[in-house]
């Protein structure tokens, strides 16, 4: 019997895991996306799009779909769905794996100001006018309205609603970006500060900022929901997730389920 796997996605790691699972008859996997981007990158796996209606809805979805395991491969800043995944895994009795890319850490030459949230990031820009590249998606722009004297450029996959940060210039683009792309963007637009979330993973903008001596305002990861009573294995990449899934598939076939 194949192991039935539900993946909560929206990340490159989820796509990498989907590539590893598709065509492997030991697994029947489904990808779940929130539906935030207009043209999401789809994997070869069957995909469902949209919220479940909270932890209850996710637990019901897993029971009805007879899923054996749940993989939370969502973005480190997507804390609501991760909290729901923990609760739902407990409610439905479905083992949960967390797939989380490691956070970035400051290295030699990096000029980072680490802040706890987006409001603090806006404050960290200071009172002197800066040219600021915001690579934080389009949902978290509101706090920067409190510092309207800066010159903002927003880079996001889809354009934000025009009234969210009306003074900003918008660049719509989807990564991954090369070091040459990032260097050109930062230099040609005369950026003096880059604001980013500590998403982790492969990313050239930090190297470009380091090279050009540009300050990075780094928004730290929110504290991951990880209640002690909800045991969860964490892995850092798709290979680690595949190994965990293989062990579960073997266990299930030994038990004849
Ligand atoms: P969030 O605040 O943690 O979740 C809000 C709600 O969206 C959840 O309660 C859930 O609705 C629904 N949802 C989120 N991810 C889902 C998924 N994979 N499948 C089905 N429903 C999902 O999430 P967010 O920060 O808005 O991020 C949304 C998605 O974008 C995530 O899947 C994440 O992986 C991806 N993403 C987020 C960021 C970021 O910076 N936050 C960056 C890149 C990609 P219900 O309660 O109704 O089930």
Layout of helices and strands:
Blueprint: E1 3-8, H1 12-21, E2 27-33, E3 47-49, H2 54-64, E4 69-72, H3 79-92, E5 96-99, E6 112-115, H4 118-124, E7 131-135, E8 151-156, E9 169-172, H5 179-188, E10 193-197, H6 205-212, E11 215-219, E12 233-235, H7 238-255
Parallel strand pairs: 1-2, 1-4, 2-3, 4-5, 5-12, 6-11, 7-8, 7-10, 8-9, 10-11
Helix pairs in contact: 1-7, 2-3, 5-6
The structure holds NADP nicotinamide-adenine-dinucleotide phosphate (NAP).
Describe it for me?
By secondary structure, the chain is α/β, with parallel strands linked by helices. The chain has seven helices and twelve strands. The chain has helices at about 10-20, 55-65, 80-90, 120-125, 180-190, 205-210, 240-255; strands at about 5-10, 25-35, 45-50, 70, 95-100, 110-115, 130-135, 150-155, 170, 195, 215-220, 235. Strands 3-2-1-4-5-12 form a six-stranded parallel beta sheet, with helices on both faces. Strands 6-11-10-7-8-9 form a six-stranded parallel beta sheet. Strand 10, helix 6 and strand 11 form a beta-alpha-beta unit. The radius of gyration is 20 Å and the shape is elongated. The relative contact order is 0.18. The model has no long low-confidence stretch (mean pLDDT about 95). It binds NADP nicotinamide-adenine-dinucleotide phosphate (NAP). NADP nicotinamide-adenine-dinucleotide phosphate (NAP) binds near residues 52 and 54. NADP nicotinamide-adenine-dinucleotide phosphate binds next to strand 2, helix 2 and helix 3.
